[in-house]
Amino acid sequence: LLQMFSFCPCSSHADTDLQSQLKQLQSRFTWDLRQEDMDLDDLSRQLQDARDSLQPLSSSPVLRYLQGRPEEAESILSQSEEKIRECYGEKSDLRLIVMYGDLAWLKYHRGDYTQSQNYYKRVQDFQHPTGSPAVLHPEVYGEKAWTFLKFSVSYHHKAIDCFCRALELQPDASEWNKGYTIALYRTEPDSPATKQLSRALDLDPDDGFLLALLALKLAAHHKHQEAKSLVERALLLSPDDPQVICHVGRYLRQQGQLDRSIDLLQRVLRRSSRSHFIHHQLALCYRKKKLNLFTRRQSTVAQRGLD
């Protein structure tokens, strides 16, 4: 996205110096995110589906900017800062490094160079823990990884690399383990993903989303009793989470429990009516019901022919 900031009206030597400084920041506008790699409508749906967590709140401003709504982008970033301070308290500063970088770029782009400089100064001295630009805080690696994971499938391997770097510094952090798990689940063969799922659940055994993912993996390996137990636990812990219900619905469909899958998906759909994933799973359920009905009719006709 950096190239989108290369032109600024009434630029001066001082403004050019500021832009050079901003390029040193850790920000979604300096991470080589390319609009041509993204499906903005799909990204918007993903962020809407996960609206109850902090990740979509921090990622939404870039989406709003790409949609030509910079004022809304700034407003969301301000809300994000408040939420992060509420959530992390004294540990908020490291969580705000990327956000202040985003704000610095947005202010610069809108011609507010004084505020842009202020945000730059807030993070310039501590965004690199060792003083070397090659080393980042785990919170920055993590934020970068979540961004790559959400913005485009073509960035998933970059997400894996960033989560690995965060885990090198904080190996027992449940957030980075969960993100690493999801990235592996989407990109790697079964073995690494399944092993990492177990690791992530050891750190956070009550995560309904991870329970549902592991259930799908176990079912694929014909470990049906274990998978069933995990699904029931996921439903108990996260009965209204659209992302959890989506994967539980997928599991139930694969097990032939179409009516139960449809009931769960429709219930959560009333809460998240725009969820692309829920609509997709419902469509697959109805398609399978139709195929089952067709197969039964064909079988009945064939049996009558034999009679």
UniProtKB/TrEMBL annotation:
SUPFAM superfamilies: TPR-like. Keywords: Immunity, Innate immunity, Repeat, TPR repeat. GO terms for cellular component: cytosol. Coiled coil: none annotated. One of its GO terms (biological process) is defense response to virus. The keyword Repeat applies. Pfam families: TPR_10. InterPro entries: TPR-like_helical_dom_sf, TPR_rpt. Belongs to the IFIT family. PANTHER family: INTERFERON-INDUCED PROTEIN WITH TETRATRICOPEPTIDE REPEATS, INTERFERON-INDUCED PROTEIN WITH TETRATRICOPEPTIDE REPEATS-RELATED. This is Uncharacterized protein. It comes from Anabas testudineus.
